[in-house]
Design a protein that fits this description.
- It contains 15 helices and eight strands.
- The chain is of the alpha/beta class.
- Among the domains are: 62 residues; 205 residues, Alpha/beta knot, CATH 3.40.1280.
- The strands form two sheets. The chain has a six-stranded parallel β-sheet. A two-stranded antiparallel ribbon has the order 7-8.
- Helix 8 crosses helix 9.
- The N and C termini lie far apart (140 Å).
Length: 415
């Protein structure tokens, strides 16, 4: 056994160690050969028989292949580094040539650039990175300019003491909110009521209910900021309805603190019927002037499909007086339905309440829907337009008759 062990050591030293010395790996191979020789002798179950022969040639091949793999792994890293450096040099050359190349590029972007299949794909990728870098720079420049302007404004405000010397009192936003709340509280006692009918939830989709609530929120804020606001009533309002959920989304905890009246009762149960006027675009009766003693009702509905007659039918069922805004009397209507949004209606009613001027009030109608204001009634203008069109048609017919008479014999002329 000792003879076999000595013989194995001599073979390993004579064959493997010179090859390892050339590659600088003598220590590792010596440890491997030592463990190999010891592992053959330290088997507990099987004893080494003298008749067994070791296949040293096969063992040498295995060791050489392992060395080649390790060497290739060590060599591959500098190759990859050299390819990245070459790619960076090409990018620098393209930048000097005037092509769209980013100034700063990361290793991941460089690897994706190298993986592009063609030269045109590489150019497109570099152009994309260049534009992205330009957008980032412009955004950063805008933010820096904005910060500089804000700092300059702060410096000017701190340096100048004109606000202290002036006789005008500076009111903060919190003070103005207190003033607005005080006006809304006064309107709940002395103000003219304005009713929003909240009974149209079944007639609308979820999206239309959301838009309706947004318009009502705008109407409430507009009403709160006026000198003489309305006392807003939400009638036919049910808890846990879509209206209620959307209002809580907008107002949050301030919903319970709003200075408005919210009730599930109908307006006919709260106010006398002879004072109620339902404002609807389908009404045959036109509103001539704003009455401060009446209570106007606005249907809380956004009708995208233009369901005509819904609010009018509801008002007739309740036996209420209806009215429509005199849009045709003061506006030369061009296109679109005569239905207005709830915030536009609020602006119009507030202006009528303060000034009683229809021209000022109807300025809140979208300008895309009418051509302009008219001094005469629209019916007379329509008559004149029809007369002009008929005269044009007659002149055109006479011209056609003359042309036909020239081109054809007299027996075929028009009579």
């Amino acid at each position: 056994m000792q003879c076999a062990n000595m013989l194995l050591r001599k073979i390993v030293r004579s064959s493997v160690l010179p090859f390892a010395a050339q590659h600088g790996m003598k220590k590792d191979l010596f440890l491997l050969s030592r463990t190999l020789s010891l592992s053959l002798c330290l088997k507990q179950d099987k004893a080494c028989e003298p008749s067994e022969k070791l296949d040293l040639d096969e063992w040498k091949k295995v060791m050489k292949s392992g060395l080649q793999e390790e060497v290739s792994e060590t060599v591959s890293e500098p190759k990859e580094l050299s390819s990245l450096a070459a790619a960076r040099e090409t990018l620098e050359m393209w930048r000097l040539a005037g092509r769209a190349v980013p100034e700063n590029i990361s290793e991941e972007q460089l690897k994706t650039f190298m993986e592009c299949p063609s030269k045109s794909a590489k150019k497109k990728y570099l152009k994309y990175l260049h534009l992205k870098e330009l957008r980032k720079k412009s955004h950063k420049r805008k933010m820096d300019e904005k910060r500089e302007r804000r700092l300059e404004a702060q410096d000017q405000a701190s340096n100048t003491d004109e606000t202290k010397k002036s006789s005008f009192v500076y009111l903060s936003s919190r003070t103005m909110d207190k003033v607005y709340h005080w006006r809304a509280a006064q309107s709940m006692i002395f103000g003219q009521p304005l009713v929003f009918d909240m009974s149209y939830e079944k007639e609308m989709s979820v999206r239309e209910v959301t838009n309706t609530v947004k318009q009502i929120v705008l109407s409430e804020s507009c009403n709160r900021r006026t000198v003489d606001p309305f006392h807003i009533h939400f009638c036919n309002f049910k808890d846990d309805s879509l209206y209620h959920k959307e209002f809580i989304k907008h107002y949050g905890e301030a919903w319970d603190k709003l200075l408005i009246t919210v009730t599930d009762q109908c307006y006919t149960e709260i106010f006398p019927k002879d004072k109620l006027i339902y404002l609807t675009a389908d009404s045959p009766k036109v509103m001539k002037k704003f009455d401060h003693d009446k209570i106007y009702i606005v249907g809380s509905m956004v009708d995208r499909s233009i369901k005509t007659g819904v609010s009018l039918a509801w008002a007739k069922r309740l036996g209420l007086e209806t009215a429509a805004l005199p849009l045709e009397k003061y506006l030369l209507w061009s296109t679109g339905a005569k239905n207005l949004t709830l915030d536009q209606m609020m602006h119009i009613l507030l202006t009528l309440k303060d000034t009683a001027d229809w021209k000022k009030a109807l300025e809140f109608v979208p300008k895309r829907k009418y051509c302009g204001f008219v001094n005469k009634p629209v019916k007379e203008l329509k008559k004149t337009l029809d007369l002009i069109n008929t005269l044009k048609l007659r002149k055109g017919r006479e011209g056609v008759e003359k042309q036909f008479a020239k081109n054809h014999p007299k027996k075929y002329t028009l009579k």
